[in-house]
Amino acid sequence: MTSLIEAFKGHDAVVSALGAGGLDNEIRMIDAAVTAGVKHFIPSQFGSNTQSKKAWEDK
């Protein structure tokens, strides 16, 4: 997570574009963004069909 914190330092926003298979990692990204002082985090849910049961299945 240290590398994420360093990468996020000095940025105002982070836009996550993870696919459904990577959503488990998004919590780590959010934590790193908070630690780095990022003001805005846009989650990747905008790219998933949240109405689809397949989108919520564990892979």
Automatic annotation (TrEMBL):
Pfam families membership: NmrA
Record domain NmrA-like: where: 3-55
Keywords in alphabetical order: NADP, Oxidoreductase
Matching Gene3D superfamilies: NAD(P)-binding Rossmann-like Domain
SUPFAM superfamilies referenced in this protein's UniProt entry, alphabetically: NAD(P)-binding Rossmann-fold domains
InterPro entries attached to this UniProt entry: NAD(P)-bd_dom_sf, NmrA-like, NmrA/Isoflavone_reductase-like
GO terms, molecular function: oxidoreductase activity
Presence of keyword Oxidoreductase: yes
Name of this protein: Putative Isoflavone reductase like protein IRL
